[in-house]
Design goal:
The protein has 415 residues and is of the alpha/beta class. The chain contains nine helices and 19 strands. About 2% of the residues have low confidence.
């Protein structure tokens, strides 16, 4: 089959690779001038456990319903946020207590485990170093802080993950660089946790897909998608570029492209921040990933760098960075791991990017209900964690197979 893919982030690239592996003729259309330039550019890096990634699911750390009227919500409304963002935020909060919340979390965990296995398989196959680090530690300043991540640990244990409650002394043995001046009660330790460099792997996967015959067309803005016949309409072109099937992996652009087909994709751009700093001292830096559940901050080791991630904003804000959020990230890094990173180095990279997120935290993967149109979008904070798994299962479905993971929880018609 000739298949057109819209979007060359980690999800689109992984989809292109899997389809090319199956012998399809693949063309990827990307509006930017390079691959992995948006949400995949500087993600937190955490691959697993997916449910411990901040903002993975509205049900993780959900407070009682009175939280809906909390005057200090965790998600910040930035300049430019309007009625659409407010409506989406209400849906996100309500999804935390929906009858389907537990099932969605379990489905995300199962998809995450499958995706991690597929990612590891590809890393071994390509024999590449993608700056992988192992182990994830959720720090608990107070014993009650464990509620900030429930019921994620229970779901993870039920699924077979290694989640252990450890005291502060044991946590410092796992992460020797943790500050001795910051008291905390203990931690949750995920021994099978893993982080890696998303953008680096995306480039490796892109070249692998090209070797299999996949084509990447950059600076190509898709104005419309067609289903009968299937194809894409590029900006400035009068004729349709036909294909046997189209796979939409276009992040926020996905919702706009689907509106013409009367498909509602209630997606929002939840903006987050990362700061990447050069390693200063090996023993003072994180060895794996550390998560602060109170402030929704992740600190991960990526090779010779340390990356701290956090923040959740609705509204573009003119692309400006929020100084208070960045200050919190710097304070978290220097507070938990003093001397671990060169935070004043000119090589420090600060990034703000959108995470296209659905109201229940789960992506939309599978058939659209329209002939020839498939969806693989809306992965939110878990794009890197779910990319390879979603791509492989979707390729199986397009090829007529059942796939290793049930996609019913991720169907577009759940909304």
């Amino acid at each position: 089959m000739e298949i057109a893919i819209v979007g060359a982030g980690i999800v689109g690239i992984a989809t292109a690779y899997e389809l090319a592996c199956d012998g399809h003729q693949v063309t990827v259309y990307e509006q930017r001038s390079a691959a992995a330039e948006e949400a995949s550019f500087a993600s937190s890096g955490l691959l697993a456990p997916a449910l411990l990634i901040p903002w993975a699911s509205p049900a993780v750390g959900a407070a009682p319903r009175r939280w809906l009227w909390n005057p200090k919500p965790s998600i910040r409304m930035a300049r430019g946020a309007g009625r659409a963002e407010s409506a989406w935020l209400r849906r996100w909060r309500k999804a935390a207590h929906a009858p389907t919340a537990a099932g969605t979390m379990l489905a995300l965990e199962q998809l995450g485990r499958y995706s991690l296995a597929r990612t590891r398989q590809l890393v071994t196959q390509f024999d590449v170093d993608i700056e992988t680090s192992h182990g994830a530690l959720v720090l608990l300043r107070h014993a009650k802080d464990i509620e900030k991540v429930r019921p994620a640990p229970d779901v993870l244990r039920e699924a077979g993950s290694q989640i252990a409650e450890v005291d502060a002394d044991t946590a410092r043995l796992i992460e020797p660089g943790l500050s001795t001046d910051v008291p905390f009660a203990g931690a949750l330790h995920a021994g099978d946790g893993e982080a890696a460099n998303c953008r680096l792997f995306a480039q490796v996967l892109r070249y692998a897909a090209q070797e299999l015959g996949a084509r990447f067309v950059f600076n190509a803005q898709v104005d419309a998608i067609s289903t009968q016949p299937a194809g894409v309409q590029l900006h400035g072109e009068s004729s349709l570029r036909r294909a046997d099937a189209v796979v939409l992996c276009a992040g926020m652009a996905s919702a706009a492209l689907l509106k013409r087909h009367r498909l509602d994709l209630p997606m929002a751009a939840v903006y987050g921040y990362t700061i990447s700093a050069p390693l200063r001292e090996e023993l003072h830096a994180p060895q794996g990933t550390v998560i602060d559940p109170v402030h929704h901050i992740t600190i991960a080791r990526q090779g010779q760098r340390v990356r701290v991630s956090g923040g959740a904003e609705l509204g573009y804000a003119g692309g400006e960075h929020h100084a208070d959020t960045l200050q919190k990230l710097y304070l978290a890094l220097s507070g938990w791991f003093p001397g671990g990173a060169l935070i004043s180095s000119p090589q420090v990279q600060t990034w703000r990017g959108a995470r296209p997120t659905m109201p229940d935290g789960a992506p939309v993967v599978g058939t659209s209900g329209l002939p020839g149109l498939w969806l693989n979008t809306g992965h939110g904070a878990c794009g890197w964690a779910l990319a390879c798994g979603c791509a492989r299962v979707l390729a199986d479905r397009i090829g007529g197979g059942a796939g290793a993971v049930d996609l019913d929880p991720f169907h577009i018609h759940r909304f």
